[in-house]
Amino acid sequence: MPPRGSRGPLPPLLLLWALAACAARASEITFELPDNAKQCFYEEIAQGTKCTLEFQVITGGHYDVDCRLEDPDGIVLYKEMKKQYDSFTFTASRNGTYKFCFSNEFSTFTHKTVYFDFQVGEDPPLFPSENRVTALTQV
Questions:
Q1: What is the pLDDT of residue 42?
Q2: Structural contact between residues 124 and 23, judged by C-beta atoms closer than 8 angstroms
Q3: Cα–Cα distance between 39 and 31 in angstroms, integer?
Q4: C-alpha closest to that of 24 among 55, 54, 49
Q5: Domains delineated in the chain
Q6: Contact of 89 with 51, CB cutoff 8 Å
Q7: Counting CB atoms within 10 angstroms of each CB, which of 1, 37, 49, 120 has the fewest?
Q8: CA 45 – CA 26 distance, rounded (Å)
Q9: Spatial contact of 57 and 103, defined as CB atoms under 8 Å apart
Q10: 39, exposed or middle or buried, with CB in 10 Å at 0-12, 13-18, 19+?
Q11: What pLDDT digit, counting tens, does each position of 103-121 carry?
Q12: How many CB atoms lie within 10 A of CB 30?
């Protein structure tokens, strides 16, 4: 019998969710990017890890920013100019610190609000496919 005040073992769904949360990590940030400014972010990534960067300009001017992603050696993996939104997926070629920057340096008087989601590692399904019930498996 569990000690008083203890609920005992975790329910299976909660345990699956906790394991999934450990397998991948993500950063979701919304920030203000002033005119004539550049903001960079850094992430330690292990070789062979699949990553996805998604971003969107939420407010400001023509809703556009420049975006650049570099590997630990400074090799440009992704570079787009004056984009409103985009998504880029890559697999890390080596261990190290990857850098991605958003730039509003082309704007002389309009600041932007930028949202991004940087996913490191694959998000495992919450429910394994062999246990998933669909219309076809019910027939």
A1: 97
A2: yes
A3: 9
A4: 49
A5: 38-121 (2.60.120.380)
A6: yes
A7: 1
A8: 12
A9: no
A10: middle
A11: 999 998 899 999 999 999 9
A12: 10
